[in-house]
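Subject: mismatched residue count in predicted assembly?

I count 344 residues in my input, but I want to confirm that the predicted structure covers every chain. Input:
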Amino acid sequence: MNFRVRAATKEDCKDISRMIMELAVYEKMPDQVEISHKELERDGFCQNPFFQCLVAEVPEEQKSKEGFTVVGYALYFYTYSTWRGRSVYLEDLYVMPEFRGNGIGKGLLCKVAEVGKKEECVRLQLSVLDWNTPSRDFYAAKGAQDLTVSEGWHFIRFDGQNLDNLANEAPKD
Amino acid sequence: MDYKLRKAEPKDVSDILRLVKELAKYEEMESQVTLTEKDLLEDGFGETPFYHCIIAETPEENSSEDPKVVGFAMYYFTYDPWVGKQLYLEEFYVMDKCRGLGIGSGILRHLSDLAMKTRCTGMMFVVAENNKPSVQFYKRRGAEDLSQEEGWRLFRFDKDSLVKMATPAEE
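Triage response: the counts match. Full output below for your records.
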């Protein structure tokens, strides 16, 4: 199958938003998606973008059943380790089910690694759900370590009312 | 104890590195810190900063001396495609002798306030499960453990694996 990996443009945000929802459905959390293509356009294509995105595209002759040619994406951003410096965090990696098994996922992952290497990043991190064995195996096969298992790291979050409460206690400047 | 929170400046990089190493020592991983003052300067105070930093300082007894840097928090902005901007707290440390005085709480509240002001819908970080004091500190303030509640595991590719994957694929 012919495919091309390229940097996303603002015009791709509707397709990216569609695939974000597909991935959320796969992860069994579709009701948690609150932003649309409008926020993606604003936050990914402003002067200091909050994320970077690559898309995988197939030629017109190989488009999906519903007529889409943008069939996969990788959304990532730069982070920082006080021990090692510049890092890349791969937030989302997704290929439409109909197009899997053709090396598109690998193509997207490797392109992110290439971009990271160019920016002198020393590591690439991501998170995977514990029941998502296909994804855990995919990353492990390429050399990723599960740090939750080996070092006991857990992801923590403050959001909604808890974040608000904490903020309301902040000392005034 | 009187303390002041402020944005880090280029002159603070040697104090930041000192505190980074102290925290690494506490986590028994001091030899893993390969970052230098030069890296911190380029990466935090160049054209596109990779991180932001808040400093906590206390005045010296002799007021003609510079205040002492006793704590810091390093953070950056990340993106959750479901809810948008997040504030990611990468490192958070207060010197041993200055603990129990409200400096840690003060830093956390300041960051939460900053998160709200910059339109972030959440503040995220990682904690090692065996770091019971830190886990309790965050849970008391309403934090959720997403690894426990939703099953998220943190994965990493180190430099060697990264370089292997970065070799351009056949077009």
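Chain B has six helices and seven strands. Marking this ticket as 'not a bug'.
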